[in-house]
Amino acid sequence: MPTIIPGSALGLNGAVPPSERIVMGGLGIGGRGTHVLRWMLPEKDVQFVAVCDAKRASREAVKRVIDEHYGNQDCKTYRDMRQFLAERTDIDALLIATGDRWHALAAIMAMRAGKDVYSEKPSSMTIAEGRAVVETARRYGRVYQTGTQRLSEANFVFCIEMARQGRLGRVHTAYAHIAPWDAAEMRHDWLPAEPEPPQEEVDWDQWLGPCPWRPYNSAYTRGGWRGHYDFHTSCIGEWGAHTFAQAQAGLGMSDTAAVEYHYVQNDSGDGMETRFANGTRMILSRGDKHWHGSCGMRFDGTEGWVACADGYHLPEASSPTLLADLQKIVADYIARTGRPMSHVRDFFDCVKSRRLTVANPSVMHYSMSTVHAANICMWLKRDLKYDPVKEEFPGDPEANRFRSRAMRAPWTI
Amino acid sequence: MNPLSYLLLGATALALAACKSPTTKASAGSAQETRCLTALRSSADLKQKADACRELARWGSAAAVPTLVGLLGDAQLSHMARYALETIPDPAVDRALREAVPTLRGRQRAGVLTSLGVRRDARAVPMLAGYLNDADADVASAAARALGDIGTPAAARALETALPRAAGGQRLAICEGLFRCAERLTAASRGRDALRLYDQLQSLADAPHQVRAGALRGAILGRGHDGLALLEQAICGPDWVLADAAARTAIEMTAANVTRTLTQALDRLAADRRVLVLQVLGCRRDVRALPTLLAAARQGDVASRLAAVRALAQLQSPAAAAPVAELIQDPERPVAEAARECLAALPGEQADAVVLRMLASTDKATRLAALDQVARRRMKQALPVLDQAADSPDPQVRAAALKQLGAFGGEAELARLLNRLDRATASEDISALTDALSTLCPRLAKPDLCADQLVARLATAGPAQQAALLHVLVSVGGAKALAAVRTAAQSPNPPLRTAAVGALTDWATADAAPELLALASKADDPDIKLRCLRRYLRWAADTDVPARQRLDMCKQAASLVERVEEKKLLLAALGGINQPEAVRQIAPFVDDAATREEACVAAVNVTEKFTGGRNPVPLPAALRPVLEKIAGATANADLARRARALLEKKP
Known about the structure:
heterodimer; A: 413 residues; alpha/beta; eight-stranded mixed beta sheet; six-stranded parallel beta sheet; 13 helices; 14 strands; 36% helix; B: 651 residues; mainly alpha; Leucine-rich Repeat Variant; 39 helices; disordered N terminus
């Protein structure tokens, strides 16, 4: 094992030159986070040194994974996030894989503390949170990537490039997958109160973080937070956090959000038509009407269509001839953008080069703005118009009041 | 559910039903607000009051402010009161929040200070300034961030005054506040004031790296063209943090001469720093960096050369094509490979022309590299040149040219490749032509046209060519191609017949199954019979074929299977058909010791599936003896138990 030279030891304090290792910490790493961790651990220029989690069982489980990988017992554990960020000035970057409620705030706190951030999706719970992530990353020059890994997978990149390069003719419609479980309408109930565990076991106050207080129930901490308004972004955000970013990339709309949202009378938003300022449409789609697999997307143009989802050997297309250049298109994308077909590698490369990642704060903020606006459309049960420049619903004070949520003190963006 | 909950739910329903019309929406909101306020003033429990606050975040007006403000000191409801208050668009909220602050402590006070910042209440500045040195760290940092959100000159002055005395976390919070102020001042066209803040942050002794980085960024961007000196100083200076920040800032900058500043600095930098700047030049995509990038690509350490070549690819300038082409033969393999990728990604005719010149080279390595580029660039205009290269005396060049003709040729190339096949004598040429045609035909997506052209040559072709043509027909597929293969399989010419059988066993769809069965039944050659039977049985096991058809196929094959191996293939096929008829066909094999266990497994699996699942079929009486026999005959105790369970299963 080569000697690790953390940034701080070199007097770099967070700046990682291309020849050095990236010292990493983990925050709130559960099941999904462990998958990402296992993608990151084999990267030779990365060293995980510490994890922080409000749950003792989780932080110890992740410590075991890390220690097992390195063959030592060196990974340190923390319960308190503020202590973790304040003490570990040697850490260059964080993997954040908490529940949705913490993603934006934890990323902001980490970037304020000088860390680069790889955060699981969704990047925000509200439009205001997304804007704050953008501003914080820009303010401190931090590198940030959301874990929307399909933006770095060949089949998805191919479809996006096909749409962007005009190989489908004029692309007039994109379809974006929304999750097949949960509804757009969210739960507001509280699960029955259970005795709160000792703080070292589960720090319930920290687990709740910026969200409204509610009594402890262990089901929340085992993934049962999904579907609750305070903690989740609904079936639209569950997969839309991925697929809207994918669809908007193909439509060339990564720097904006949809401006029109047409309410559909069902419980999921399936079939909702959103429209961008140039008239192109993005339609929310549940099930396998347009693909077979999860997190699917499809682009329809005047000269053909392409679609793909997880598990595809090759994308689907209106004609096999559209797939003929698949390898070239992906290879050209890699050469032109310098981005690898590995989402975590793109992050690490950007930590060293300091350039923007493929799922950078701005790209994620705009696609998540579309997610949030679609959710608000479903909650208000009526059509909406949104101004992505002013980041407001013009002349619609009722909708505007959903753009932010007050955070529980002492947490603040 | 208690009465109050019904009240709230009813109010919500009423409000939602009315929300399409602005007038009714307003009145519904008013009704909802009244009901929520009633709940808050009642003895309702915590959950109900929290829900009322949440509703007021949507419906609340100035009328709700007194009640909500009254909850700010309540440890359990303070947050939810702010949750409602923050979104109410009425100045009464700001006044009420300000007045509440002195009455609060700890988290409640910190929360209200934050809300004043969210609402950008400029009148709160003097009060917020007073809390910047508060002993409660949460309160002090909330005040600093709130002042930043308000971002007026007065807010900035308060933060500047507090900065020298601040330490630790509060120092960071004040820096954050100053950054926010600077951003707001910039947005308000008060760039000079913003610049003063950035400079103050830059000069801060022992500042954390992220503050130094952020301050430098602001100072450079805020100065516009005059910021270039600062940029250069940081890029060339000893501090990695600042160099890093300057690099990131340079990507954002649109000012003229940024590229010149970076390229002029390049020669003065150490290897790591050179890589950083070369990457920045790539990200900026300014073609004025081309000469510098080309020079850096040609010489220096490998890391810098690699970064330069990759940056050239990002630049997307066709003018880079010729120099990059020269690097394809570079002795440093990573550089050569990067150059190949780069050239392939450069757009335009100028780059195509470079590749065509490479194709005309007499150097074998250059020609091979060019052939690779032709394919990567999908250069259709190179097809005539590829055709010439296919006549090269060098077999490697010939094979590469043929491969590319197959990869993106059209109908014209189909005829040319077939002519070449007619003339070919060397086995490696026939093999390369077969591969090229097998790639080309499916791409054309015209199976009838391809089949016609291939079949027309079949009768007059030599034996090796016939085998090749039959192989290509497999890639074509379709009824015409299959008919031709079927005819060839009846030929008295043994080599042609053997090749046709090979084509039938390789056929990609089950359309070939009847012919396979016929050959399995009637062919003279026992080896052909066996090959066809085995392939036929694999089709019978293919779940893409409808179950009814597979059952028929199994029935027809049953009389042909003689060896244990084929019997087991038949059982595998039957084991995948979840119908009672499959079990009937399996039953005879239970009596055969060589296939008993496989038959038992298949029968039980099938029976479990059609008697279970969403649409269960009752166990037919005729199958009970089969399962009883299995329960007694199998050596597998678990299987016997499963068979008995099926017998005992109630319909």
